[in-house]
């Protein structure tokens, strides 16, 4: 199985690599690399987003950090005691997650926040590895259609059997693996 995090110089998606390189030229102090997951690998909850935001996670190196989506997500996690410390919009703010992990379906910032199908597919092995290495995982919250479809694909299930809808709930049962 693939590692759960792509290398910092990942070039699997030429368009995303080129966009990262352009951003690094314009903003050399920003993270400008595939954004790793944030949280506890032993968590029961995984939250899967679409991709890093240009001036959020691409800048800070932590999912949902430094943009409005992060403001909403991290305040919600605090409300439900799934975090400790104060979210301050940067990766070294000391925030910790409790029993939760945040990741993205696509690990690199895409132009106009719109990855193309081939990029989603290239990043799928990293999402799959991340989810399958979480020994206590019980709940996955997918934020949006691409995240939802990527999670279904990460479990080798048919998207048509798990239709996307806002607020929908599905029970995912991974197919049996050889030797199990």
Summarize the structure.
With 180 residues, the chain is of the alpha/beta class.
Write the layout of secondary structure elements.
Blueprint (H helix, E strand, L loop, with lengths): L13 H13 L11 E2 L5 E5 L7 H4 L7 H12 L3 E2 L11 E2 L2 E5 L12 H16 L6 E4 L2 H10 L26
Helix pairs in contact: 4-5
Q: Which terms summarize this structure?
A:
alpha/beta, two-stranded antiparallel sheet, 31% helix, 5 helices, 180 residues, 11% strand
Describe the structure.
By secondary structure, the protein is of the alpha/beta class. It has helices at 14-26, 57-60, 68-79, 117-132, 145-154; strands spanning 38-39, 45-49, 83-84, 96-97, 100-104, 139-142. Helix 4 crosses helix 5 (145-154). The mean pLDDT is 94.
- Proportion of residues in extended strands: 5-15%
The percent of residues in helical segments reads 25-40%
The biggest beta sheet reads:
4 strands, mixed
Beta strand count: 6
Number of contiguous helices: 5
